[in-house]
Structures are given as C-alpha cells and as structure tokens.
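Q: Convert this sequence to structure tokens.
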Amino acid sequence: MVDCIIHNEGLQGYDGIRQSYPICRKKTNRIRYLLFLLKGFVLYYLSCLIIRLVLWRRFVVKHKKKSKMPEKRVVVLTGAGVSAESGIKTFRDSGGLWEDYDIMDVATPEAWERNQELVLDFYNQRRKQLYEVEPNDAHYALVDLEKDFDVQIITQNVDDLHERAGSSNVMHLHGELKKVRSSVDERLVYDLDGWELKPGDRCEKGAQLRPHIVWFGEPVDMIPAAAELSNSADIYVIIGTSLNVYPAAGLVSYVRPGTPIYLIDPGELSVGHIPGLTFIREKAGTGTKKLVSELKKDHT
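A:
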C-alpha cells in the first residue's frame, strides 16, 4: 500500500486510490510468481539432493558387499550323540531301543522281505517318539553359528531336529524318518502325514511304501556329495559320533590338509591318527556351545 501511495504521489482521495489499485495488483502477482519460482527451485534442489544421497548410499552398500570377506565355511558331521540328548534312543546306547531288536530283523532289505509288518512297526515307534522330543542345545548352538559362518551340516541321524531348530543347510546321509518311499522306485519319495505307516499304504505305482531309510547293506548315495562338501570346509566339526560307522566315518579323510578339525564326544575315542584334530571330551550340548562361543570370538 505504501508503494502504491509513493508511486501515485500527487493523487488525492478515492479516485487516486482507485487508479493506483491495478499497479498494486500487478506487483502482488509478480511477487507471487517470484515466490512460486523460488519454491520450485527449492523443491528441485531438494529432489536432486535426495537422489544424490540415495545413489551414494547404494554405492557405499554395494562397495561394502564387494569388499566384504567371504564367510568361512564350517562343515559339521553329526551323529547319534546329538539326538540322544533330546531323548531319542540310539542303537549304541546301553539301554537303547535297538537292543530290543536284532538289527538284521528290522534294518536290512532282507528283513523287509521277511517281515514287513515288523519293520513298519519298528520305524513307526521311532517316528512316534520323534514327535515327542525337541531340539537341544547342540542343535540351537549350530543355528547361532550361522550368524557368522557358512554352516553346512552333514548328519547321520534320520530325525528332523536340525531343521526344527532352524538350521538352513542339512544333508541327511541315511534318510529321513518322516519321509517314506516306494519299495520299487526309490525316486518316489513322500512326506508322511503323521507317525504311522501301515501295510497297504502304496505309492503311485501300486507298491507298498517303505521307510525312507538307508538300511544296512544298502548303498549310501549321498556319500559323494558329503565328501565334496567335507573337502570345501575351512573348519570341520564332528559331534556325537564315534567315527566307527562307515562310510560316514571316512568323510574326515576328505578334509583338506591344514584344516582345523574339532571332535565333540564324551567317550574315550582313539583319534590320534587324525592330524590337526582337537578333541573336546564333552556331551554334545555342552561341547558344541563352548566351541561355537570360541569360533565366534575368534571371528570378531
């Protein structure tokens, strides 16, 4: 309003103000236009700044990923001693389930041919027990190790306790108790619904289903893959196995020379012939937790 009066100096009264109004409106529009341009410039500048920051962050993250050292691979071979601490009976226990049966009567192809009902009942009882137990400290410690290492588990056990604990990579050498397969085509493998496999349960080819277990006298088809995995280890860990059951016990011979090897087992084992081996004479849960703590400490 002041600008208007100065601009129209000499004009008096209502007519003067009336004549000055168009000039005031032009100046107001000009100011609004300039403010609009300024606002647009600020928004454009901020947008460019945000885009630059996003691109810079992506570059830094990508660079860190490239420069990050690859994770060391820990290959773990587990045996019956790991499952035993969850309450699963094993055939090497003094009061174990297998003592009630002759192995030749329940865990061989010949036993299946002689008495399918006995074999089915034996594995049904083992499967039923599996539904009643939970993973233990050893299982969970190996899951924790995955936070800092590439952990690959090779297990001789047929239970699913590693998977239930949360382990990402588990290779079963001797089959899986909760699965069944065709007795005429081993490629036809199925998840069993529940714990009971009955006579008359058949595959799509009409043959009786059998436990998805590698019986004594049958080839262990996963050994070549397990040997290759053992050879890739930066650290090799053996838990809960006496290293007396072949061919699984022979996997340690595929570990590269100079690779640290740890054995966790409470028994008196003759392991002096294995170079570079550290024997931790503890039960699976206690020993695994100790070793995992040490490995994570060395990693940081």
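The longest helix spans residues 13-67.
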